[in-house]
UniProtKB/TrEMBL annotation:
PANTHER family: TIR DOMAIN-CONTAINING PROTEIN, TMV RESISTANCE PROTEIN N-LIKE
Pfam families (alphabetical): TIR
Chain intervals with Low complexity compositional bias: 9-22
Protein name: ADP-ribosyl cyclase/cyclic ADP-ribose hydrolase
Lineage: Eukaryota, Viridiplantae, Streptophyta, Embryophyta, Tracheophyta
Record GO biological process: signal transduction
Catalyzed reaction equations: NAD(+) + H2O = ADP-D-ribose + nicotinamide + H(+)
Domain TIR: 22-175
């Protein structure tokens, strides 16, 4: 999942921001290999052009820092999240961990979550069928991930139950 920090000077310095202060309007969550150079790039540009301070991990993570704490901080300091579910989203443990953080933030704070189902059926996300079933079969074979699989499944179901947008992959991300 990638998010881009806006050029607003007050948003660029996150060291003095507390978790209760929003540094970003939107945190973008996505599987980079699926949509980074297409739909998500267009979405991020549109959000930023509309004045939304947007966090995308490929631009905003500090080099040399641990990824998970940086992502947690970005999610905590965002007012909302847009989750771009794609066919291979669930194959990434990073994406699924990020989803857990986003859904937890939704439950404990006034954090808005908008799911975008990009070239994937919402029912496949909700029930983990289709390409998601294949991804979970792989996760379940890994002994170290077994304890997370149940939580990941619950988070996917919870996110898929939210009202969102269903988009088909047309014209390189322009639906």
């Amino acid at each position: 999942m990638a998010l881009v920090r806006s050029a607003h000077p007050e948003a660029s310095s996150s060291s003095d921001a507390s978790p209760s202060i929003s540094s970003h309007d939107v945190f973008l969550s996505f599987r980079g290999e699926d949509t980074r150079k297409t739909f998500t790039d267009h979405l991020c540009t549109a959000l930023m052009n509309a004045g939304f301070r947007t966090f995308r991990d490929d631009n905003d993570l500090q080099r040399g820092e641990y990824i998970k704490p940086e992502l947690e901080k970005a999610i905590e300091q965002s007012r909302s999240s847009v989750i771009v579910f794609s066919k291979d989203y669930a194959s990434s443990g990073w994406c699924l961990d990020e989803l857990l953080m986003i859904m937890e933030r939704r439950r404990t704070a006034d954090h808005i979550v908008l799911p975008v189902f990009y070239d994937v059926d919402p029912s496949h996300v909700r029930k983990q069928t289709g390409s998601l079933a294949k991804a979970f079969a792989g996760h379940e074979r890994n002994q170290f991930l077994k304890y997370k699989v149940k939580r990941w499944r619950e988070a996917l179901t919870e996110a898929a139950d939210l009202s969102g947008m269903v988009l088909q992959n047309e014209a390189d991300g322009y639906a």
